[in-house]
Amino acid sequence: MRFTDQLTAAARSQHTMLCVGLDPEPARLPSHLPQGAAGIYDFCAAIVDATADLACAFKPQIAYFAAQGAEAQLERLIAHIRQAAPGVPVILDAKRGDIGATAVQYAREAFERYGADAVTVSPFMGQDTVQPYLQYPDKGVFLLCRTSNPGGNDFQAQRLADVPGQPRLFEHLATQAQGAWNSNGQLGLVVGATYPEDVAAVRRCAPSLPLLIPGVGAQGGDAVATVRAAYTGPGSVAINSSRAILYASQGADFAQAARAQALRTRDELNAAVPA
Ligand SMILES: O=C(O)c1cc(=O)[nH]c(=O)n1[C@@H]1O[C@H](COP(=O)(O)O)[C@@H](O)[C@H]1O
Q1: Among the atoms of ligand 1, which is closest to the Cα of residue 214?
Q2: How much distance in Å is there from the Cα of 211 to the middle of ligand 1?
Q3: Cβ proximity of 6 and 89 under 8 Å
Q4: Residue environment code for 196-212, b if the CB has 16+ CB neighbours within 10 A, otherwise e
Q5: Which strands make up the sheet holding 18-22, listed edge to edge?
Q6: 25 in helix, strand or coil?
Q7: For every residue of 192-214, which 3-state class applies, written as one string?
Q8: Rounded to an integer, what distance in angstroms lies between the CA atom of residue 12 and that of residue 7?
Q9: 117/40 Cα distance (integer angstroms)
Q10: How would you class 35 by CB atoms within 10 Å of its CB: exposed for 0-12, middle for 13-18, buried for 19 or more?
Q11: Strand bridging mode 237-241 / 211-213
Q12: Closest atom of ligand 1 to CA, residue 152
């Protein structure tokens, strides 16, 4: 099944637009879990079990695994998601970006090694560096567009004097992703919930692309304004929360607390859909 169809099916059947981010920080893991890579796996697998019916996607951030030498645990975790949450797609957050020959290897890593359904990619180096990911027609590719961090303004909000209408860089990117770059309908965009007005601007440029939207929860993004700006139906958005869910409790009840927080977030997002 194509990624966009998979995301839509999961969002529809579970009635959710919540993407659960898997960002395991060793210092924040409950102390009763084993130290090191084994603890990372146990923690994330328990979070997956606790939220499997609440998520339209899971988003493991590769750096949290690679920094601990826990790549094998990431492979195992993705296999676990296939069992515990069949039908819920895995978006590998890798934010890769490099020349085509190297991007071929990054695409292989994401889609063949880890078997992810979609990957995050930086479009900074241009269209040819995105192309290798599009050789996997069933897979999704989320291009960083209007990121959630304060420094996202530094380049992304600059106006392009040479492009008609002088759009901001992120708007130009969204237009390209909706049109010329999206040769096989695989592209989506990453847009931060910390800038709901810019989410709306992206949605105007890219009316039919799925948007991966981090920034609610720990980063303080406006969930309600974001849904109003971006949601156009099941599968149109995957709104990510990581730390607010993962570390709702650091005690033995961490998975229960994560579920409670995921439920609250799912319900808040669903309630924001205009009638
Ligand atoms: O691509 C991303 O997922 C991403 C893009 C962005 O603009 N901002 C952003 O926070 N992220 C990721 O989304 C997650 C946000 O985590 P929390 O702030 O803990 O919910 C982290 O894994 C970030 O790496």
Answers
A1: 13
A2: 13
A3: yes
A4: bebbebbbebbeebbbb
A5: 57-60, 18-22, 237-241, 211-213, 187-191, 140-146, 118-121, 91-96
A6: coil
A7: CCCCHHHHHHHHHHCCCCCEEEC
A8: 8
A9: 22
A10: exposed
A11: parallel
A12: 7
Q: Which domains does the chain have, with CATH numbers?
A: 3-170+211-272 (3.20.20.70)
- pLDDT number for residue 114: 98
Report angle CA 273, 54, 242 to the nearest 5 degrees: 90
The tokens of 44 are what? Answer: 């994330």
How are beta strands 57-60 and 18-22 bridged, if at all? parallel
Query: What are the structure tokens assigned to 155, written together?
Result: 């380049």
Bridge partners of residue 57, in order along the sequence:
19
Q: With CA atoms as reference, report the closest residue to 194 among 240, 239, 227, 148.
A: 148
Residue 73's alpha-carbon distances to 30, 92, 272, in angstroms, are 17, 14, 36
Q: Which has the closest alpha carbon to 236: 221, 226, 222, 249?
A: 226
Specify the length of the chain in residues.
Answer: 275
* The CA-based dihedral angle spanning residues 105, 107, 110, 111, taken in that order and rounded to the nearest 10 degrees: -120
Q: Residue 252, SS3?
A: coil
Strands (E), 23-175: 57-60, 91-96, 118-121, 140-146
User: Which tokens is 142 given?
Assistant: 């989320």
Helix (H, G, I), strand (E, B) or coil at 76: helix
Low-confidence residues of the chain, pLDDT below 50? none
Q: What is the dihedral of CA 59, 63, 67, 72, to 10 degrees?
A: 40
In which residue are the tokens 């479009």 written? 123
Catalytic status, residue 59: no
Nearest Cα to 55, choosing from 253, 239, 272? 239
Helix axes 196-205, 223-230, angle to 10 degrees: 10
Residues with CB under 6 A from ligand 1: 21, 23, 61, 93, 95, 120, 147-149, 190, 192, 214-215, 217-219, 240-243
